[in-house]
Structures are given as structure tokens and as C-alpha cells.
Amino acid sequence: GYSPFGEIPDNEFNRWLQHNVPTACSAIKNHPDWKNLKVHFEFWATGSLSAAALEMFDVAKKTVKPSRYTLGLKLAPAIHAMCKETNDKGLTTAFQKHYMKA
């Protein structure tokens, strides 16, 4: 987890995109109960991503075969909207207080 006031380092995001996702996908595709499931990976972050990281994500999303897996990205505004959808005032307040810029 990174502070909502910080930027996620490009090398951390690149590791998720280029190492963690393919490693997890390989394990899923080799598992007898999971190998035929649709696979979707999402990176959730309350901190920001650099322009280079966003470009990296866009390229990867367009390049990867959807039959292998798909990619998603959820940043603070989208996560906040999901909190609101729960109608749980405590969850929304806690998210706003601890994970969003004021």
C-alpha cells in the first residue's frame, strides 16, 4: 500500500504487470480446476501512477490476448465509487479519511 499522496514507483507497477500477473496466470492455467476459467487481473491503487506507468498499462491491455487474461485498473475515484455503492457509510467514511486526498 502506498499513501494517497504518493506515486506508485514505476518499477513496482512494472513488476506487477510483467512478473506477478504472468506468474499468477501460469499457475491458474496449470491448475486442473481453474485452467478453463476466464482470468482477469486488476491493479487497485489509492496513490497515483505516472504517465509512463499508465502508458505501460495501456500497451499491455491492448497487447495481451483476451483468451489468456484481461487487465483492469482501479484508482482512488473508482474505488471510492465502489465504497459508496455498498451504502455502508462507515466504509465510505473510512476510505475517504485514510485512503483519499483531502
The termini sit apart by: 18 Å
Strand % is 5-15%
Approximate helicity band? 40-55%
Element-level helix/strand string: HEHEHH
Count the DSSP helices.
Answer: 4
**What would you call the structural class?**
mainly alpha
The low-confidence parts are: none
Overview of the structural elements:
The chain is 54% helix and 12% strand. The model has no long low-confidence stretch (mean pLDDT 94). It has helices at residues 10-30, 51-63, 76-85, 89-99, and strands at 40-45, 70-75. With 102 residues, the protein is mainly alpha-helical. It has 4 helices and 2 strands; from the N terminus they run H-E-H-E-H-H. The longest helix has 21 residues, at 10-30. It has a two-stranded parallel sheet. Strand 1, helix 2 (51-63) and strand 2 form a beta-alpha-beta unit.
Summarize the model shown.
This protein is mainly α. It has helices at 10-30, 51-63, 76-85, 89-99, and strands spanning 40-45, 70-75.
Question: What is the secondary structure topology, with strand pairs?
Answer:
Layout: H1 10-30, E1 40-45, H2 51-63, E2 70-75, H3 76-85, H4 89-99
Parallel strand pairs: 1-2
Helix pairs in contact: 1-2, 3-4
Pick out its properties.
4 helices, mainly alpha, globular, 2 strands, 12% strand, two-stranded parallel ribbon, 102 residues
